[in-house]
Design a protein that fits this description.
Structural class: mainly alpha
Distance between the termini: 113 Å
Number of helices: 17
Largest sheet: 2 strands, parallel
Strand content: under 5%
Strand order of the largest sheet: 1-3
Helix content: 55-70%
Number of strands: 6
Length: 488
């Protein structure tokens, strides 16, 4: 059907012009949209061409795009990337080391915000669109809540990028060859790591379609305790050595987890709409499942052995098994859909594949942002791998904990970082108190962990020096004995 965009000029003298066109467009049903007979015109894309900054930060007009609400959350991560890159060029003092941490913050914050934007807040169909049933959307149809399909897509795109890189340098002096897997056990390790890692990322992406970045991050800050519990459970099965149970460390982890739970419950209780609260509960559950998958991944690393694969090897060997593992879930598992999705498609539950089909019919530009997430994920893994292998473990741990804490604070402090309005008193006071205590508890735990590692390294160096000294003395005594024998 022809696209009709009503004029936005005032209809009567003294009447203020509308800030955006009225979308009197008719939308097809789920079956029509997927079957190729879609009657819904791609109004979201047309809004981009008309230069409306309310729909997305990806604009033809850079100035309007920079001022749009969608772009503002990316200002801080992009600033961190630029400043970190500049500081890394300075070779004097510790400026380059600090620059790596700033770059790490920018990259990690960008990926968190971008994935939250793609999964939950980017506009797929704008408010005001009229459906074929005659119902007009009161709110924007936002995001693309297809976490498993998106993760599989990211794996495929990362693999394609690796193949392009591999073929482009193959006939040059910079040829790169992945590490050779020499045994069936190493192949088994790679497959297991790939599946568990993909499940961790997919569940996390799933949760971002239902909960805010702050809730997601504060739940994932509980990783130390979940990893400790996973390791101890494997130790009971004689698959992993028991970790020492220090009361102070366990208490700090428990306090941090309790505060994370209080924060989450206060955020859900402060939600005004019941359907939004139920969706948040689903998102929280999936985020906890992602946390457990991440803990299992770390524990399995100790059980199955260290494969010592870099980021390129990881993509080369794990992308295909991970995609095959996620595909059945994306194709067949039905799940509740949030927001305006039931109203647009007439269904309360959909699979990831059906969601992608619907998004493709409604707004192909949203599919572009999903594809870009695969490229960004590949680049982020390269940055993370480079930083982890050039900084000390303590500095890397500090950087990761600081990034989570800083992003949570920024999300709560800055209005333009907030996707939805924060709840009012008393919930907001509970949220702030829980965040502060949570960060203090896990920061103290990280400090104790770093101190223990430094003491172990210092004792190892001291023991090595003592062994070298004793060896030197033994050699000296042997030489003196040989001299005495020669004199006799």
């Amino acid at each position: 059907r022809p696209l009709k965009v009503p004029s936005t000029a005032p209809s009567r003298p003294g009447e203020r012009a509308s800030s955006q066109p009225e979308h009197g467009l008719r939308a097809g049903s789920m079956a029509a949209a997927i079957g190729g007979n879609a009657s819904m015109v791609d109004t979201a894309q047309m809004a981009h061409f008309q230069g409306n900054p309310d729909h997305s930060f990806m604009m033809w007009n850079p100035l309007e795009g920079a001022m749009s609400a969608g772009f503002r959350p990316f200002v801080i991560p992009l600033t961190g990337l630029l400043i970190g890159t500049g500081m890394m060029q300075v070779k004097t003092g510790n400026v380059a080391t600090v620059g790596k941490l700033v770059l790490y913050f920018g990259a990690q914050s960008f990926m968190n915000i971008y994935m939250g934007w793609v999964m939950r807040t980017s506009v797929t169909v704008p408010a005001g669109t009229q459906l074929e049933s005659g119902v007009i959307l009161d709110k924007d149809l936002t995001g693309c809540p297809a976490g498993f399909a998106l993760t599989a897509m990211q794996q495929v795109i990362s693999f394609i990028v690796f193949l392009i890189f591999f073929s482009s340098v193959y006939f040059t002096p910079y040829r790169y060859m992945p590490k050779k897997l020499n045994s069936t056990f190493e192949i088994f390790c790679v497959v297991i790591f790939g599946c568990v890692f993909a499940l961790n990322i997919a569940l996390n992406n799933f949760s971002l379609g239902y909960i805010s970045i702050a809730v997601n991050l504060i739940i994932r800050s509980c990783l130390p305790l979940s990893t400790f519990v996973s390791s101890q459970c494997l130790a009971l099965c004689k698959l992993y050595p028991f970790k020492p149970c220090r009361p102070v460390e366990i208490t700090l982890m428990a306090v941090g987890v309790i505060c994370a739970g209080v924060f989450t419950m206060a955020r859900i209780a402060g939600e005004e709409k019941k359907d939004a609260s139920s969706n948040m509960l689903l998102g929280v559950f999936m985020c906890i499942a992602s946390l457990l998958s991440g803990s299992l991944n770390l524990a399995l690393a100790g059980v199955l052995g260290e494969t010592k694969l870099n980021v390129y090897d990881t993509v080369a060997y794990m992308a295909i098994p991970a995609t095959l593992f996620l595909m059945p879930i994306a194709l067949f598992v039905q799940k509740p859909v949030p927001g305006e999705w039931p109203k647009v498609f007439g269904r309360e539950t959909m699979s990831d594949w059906e969601i992608l089909q619907g998004v493709w019919a409604l707004n192909k530009q949203t599919m572009l942002w999903l594809g870009l997430s695969g490229l960004f994920s590949f680049l982020y893994n390269i940055i993370q791998f480079s930083i982890v292998h050039t900084l000390s473990p303590s500095a890397t741990a500090f950087g990761g904990n600081f990034n989570k804490a800083a992003l949570i604070f920024l999300t709560l402090l800055l209005p333009f970082m907030q996707v939805h309005k924060l709840p009012g008193p008393p919930y907001i006071y509970i949220i702030w108190g829980a965040v502060i205590v949570n960060i203090i508890a896990f920061s103290a735990y990280s400090y104790l962990q770093v101190s223990d590692k430094q003491e172990e390294e210092a004792s190892s160096v001291k023991l090595l020096h003592e062994e070298e000294s004793s060896t030197a003395l033994d050699d000296s005594d042997t030489d003196n004995g040989a001299d005495d024998d020669s004199e006799e």
